[in-house]
Design a protein that fits this description.
Helix content: 25-40%
Structural class: mainly alpha
Shape: elongated
Radius of gyration: 28 Å
Strand content: under 5%
Number of strands: 0
Order of helices and strands: HHH
Distance between the termini: 94 Å
Largest sheet: none
Oligomer: single chain
C-alpha cells in the first residue's frame, strides 16, 4: 500500500458519480409541475412584505372594536393585505361591469352592479345599501 492509499476518509475527494453509474435521487431532474396557482383574480400578486395601506391606520381602526384589547403587527399586516386584496377584487369586478357597458371608466354604479350580481359580494347589499344605483 502506498501513502495515498492510507489517507484518512475525511481527506478523500467526494465521489461525483455512484459506482453503478446511475444518478442519485438528488441529481435526478424533478418533473415540472404544470399546475398554475389559482387566484381570485388574474393580476393578483403574492404579498411582498409591504402594504399600500398605512399599517398604523389599520391598527387604529382595529382598536376601535371594543372586543379587541391588543393587536400584533403581524395580525394588523394580515388584515391590511386582506383588505387590499378585497379592494382589488371588488374593483376588478366593477371594471368587468363597466366593460360590459363598453366603457373604460369605473363608476359607482359598476361597483353596485357587481355587488348586486355576484354572490361573493352579496354581504354588502343589505347592511351597507351599496346597491342603490
Amino acid at each position: 500500500m502506498t501513502s495515498a492509499d492510507k489517507q484518512p476518509l475525511g481527506d478523500l475527494p467526494a465521489a461525483t458519480t455512484p459506482i453503478n453509474g446511475t444518478k442519485s435521487s438528488s441529481e435526478k431532474k424533478k418533473p415540472k409541475s404544470h399546475n398554475k396557482e389559482v387566484t381570485p383574480t388574474s393580476v393578483t400578486q403574492p404579498p411582498t412584505g409591504q402594504a399600500s395601506l398605512p399599517l398604523a391606520r389599520v391598527k387604529r381602526i382595529i382598536k376601535l372594536d371594543e372586543d379587541v384589547r391588543a393587536c400584533s403587527n403581524s395580525a394588523a399586516f394580515a388584515v391590511t393585505v386582506a383588505t387590499e386584496m378585497f379592494i382589488q377584487y371588488m374593483c376588478e369586478q366593477g371594471l368587468h361591469m363597466s366593460r360590459s357597458d363598453r366603457r373604460k371608466t369605473l363608476h359607482y354604479k359598476d361597483l353596485a352592479n357587481a355587488v348586486h350580481k355576484l354572490d361573493e359580494l352579496e354581504f354588502l347589499s343589505g347592511k351597507y345599501n351599496i346597491c342603490n344605483v
